[in-house]
Structure formats: structure tokens, C-alpha cells
């Protein structure tokens, strides 16, 4: 029978290190698309994992997945931050394009404009629609994973994606920056 990580500090530290490595990028991206300021995102992301360590109780987890809990912690920290600042700020999606630098200035400008337009259009969606769009198309998660994160069935996730994409298409048309 494996040792209980609560009884062995080294095993507990290794468990948290593995959780951090596995989920840091997902949590960082989740916070980034809601806050935008890289330094603030780094702080809030770190706070998510600090709260995880503080509140984690192996016996109460009952084998439930950890990512939905991390998203909930992140969401609450972002809401708390926004309440303190009394403003909601959506960041541009340029970070998606920064990973693959444009080879031509014209292409870079077009990508920037597209990112800004998409960011404005996401502002028309409700929180649940934004979450499903980010999870599916930015984080490239499968519907089963999204269902687990959102606490919905896969069928409900597909329906939500369909509604979110329809709302996003209408928002892009309203912003008049989508050709197609």
C-alpha cells in the first residue's frame, strides 16, 4: 500500500510540484485572458497554487479532478481583483501570436488587428461562453475535459460551444472586423 502523502513531507512536496508543472500553463492562460497584465497574471497564478497548498486535503478530494478546482480558485481570485479595481479588463489575444513571430510587418499588423478584434468580440459573450471558447480553441482541450472542468455533460458542452460560436460570429460581425 502506497504511503499517504500527508504523512511524508517529501512526497507531498513532489505531489504539489507535479500538479504545478501539469497545470501551471492552463491556469496562467485562464487568468491572462481575464486580466492581461503579465505581472499581475504571474502573481494571481502563484496565488492560485498557494491557495491549493493551503486548502488541499487529500481525504476530502475523494479522487475528484484538480483542474476544475484550480479554475474555480483562479476565477475567484480574478473576481476579487476586479472588484478591488472596480473594473473588468479583457486582454488582447496577442500572446497567442507571440509564440510564433510574424515574418513580415504586414502580417504582424494583421495578426494584431485580428487579436484585438477577437478580444473585443469575446467581451460580448457571457462568462460561460468565454470559458468554453478559451478551453476549446485556446487551450485546445477535448470536449470530455471541458465537460469535467465545467461540470456539464459532453452534450451540454457541445450545445454551449455551438451557442458560443454563434454569439461570437454575431459579435465579430458587429465589430466589423471579420471577413468571411
Give your account of this protein's structure:
The chain is 74% helix and 0% strand. It is mainly α and 180 residues long. α1 (9-35) runs antiparallel to α2 and α1 (9-35) crosses α4 (67-85). The longest helix is centred in the first third of the chain and has 27 residues, at 9-35. 19% of the residues are buried.
What is the element string, with H for helices and E for strands? HHHHHHHHH
Structural class estimated from helices and strands: mainly alpha
Question: DSSP helix count?
Answer: 9
Strand content: under 5%
Helix fraction by DSSP (H/I, runs of at least 4) = over 70%
The average pLDDT value, as a whole number, equals: 77
Largest sheet: none
Please give the radius of gyration in angstroms.
18 Å
Unreliable spans are: 94-103
Instruction: Give the overall shape, derived from the CA principal axes.
Output: globular
Q: How many β-strand stretches?
A: 0
Termini distance? 59 Å
Task: For this entry, give a set of tags.
single chain, 180 residues, mainly alpha, 9 helices, 74% helix, 0% strand, globular
Helix-strand blueprint:
Layout: H1 9-35, H2 38-55, H3 58-61, H4 67-85, H5 94-98, H6 105-122, H7 127-138, H8 143-150, H9 154-175
Helix pairs in contact: 1-2, 1-4, 2-4, 6-9, 7-9, 8-9
Amino acid at each position: 500500500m502506497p504511503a499517504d502523502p500527508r504523512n511524508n513531507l517529501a512526497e507531498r512536496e513532489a505531489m504539489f510540484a507535479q500538479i504545478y508543472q501539469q497545470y501551471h500553463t492552463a491556469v496562467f492562460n485562464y487568468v491572462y485572458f481575464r486580466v492581461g497584465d503579465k505581472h499581475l497574471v504571474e502573481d494571481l497564478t502563484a496565488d492560485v497554487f498557494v491557495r491549493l497548498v493551503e486548502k488541499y486535503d487529500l481525504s476530502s478530494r475523494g479522487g475528484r479532478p484538480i483542474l476544475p478546482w484550480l479554475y474555480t480558485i483562479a476565477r475567484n481570485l480574478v473576481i476579487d481583483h476586479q472588484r478591488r479595481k472596480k473594473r473588468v479588463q479583457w486582454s488582447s489575444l496577442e500572446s497567442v501570436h507571440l509564440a510564433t513571430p510574424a515574418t513580415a510587418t504586414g502580417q504582424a499588423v494583421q495578426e494584431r488587428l485580428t487579436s484585438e478584434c477577437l478580444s473585443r468580440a469575446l467581451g460580448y459573450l457571457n462568462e460561460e461562453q468565454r470559458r468554453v471558447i478559451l478551453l476549446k480553441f485556446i487551450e485546445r482541450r477535448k470536449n470530455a475535459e471541458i465537460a469535467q472542468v465545467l461540470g456539464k455533460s459532453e452534450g451540454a458542452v457541445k450545445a454551449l460551444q455551438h451557442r458560443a460560436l454563434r454569439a461570437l460570429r454575431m459579435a465579430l460581425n458587429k465589430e466589423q472586423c471579420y471577413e468571411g
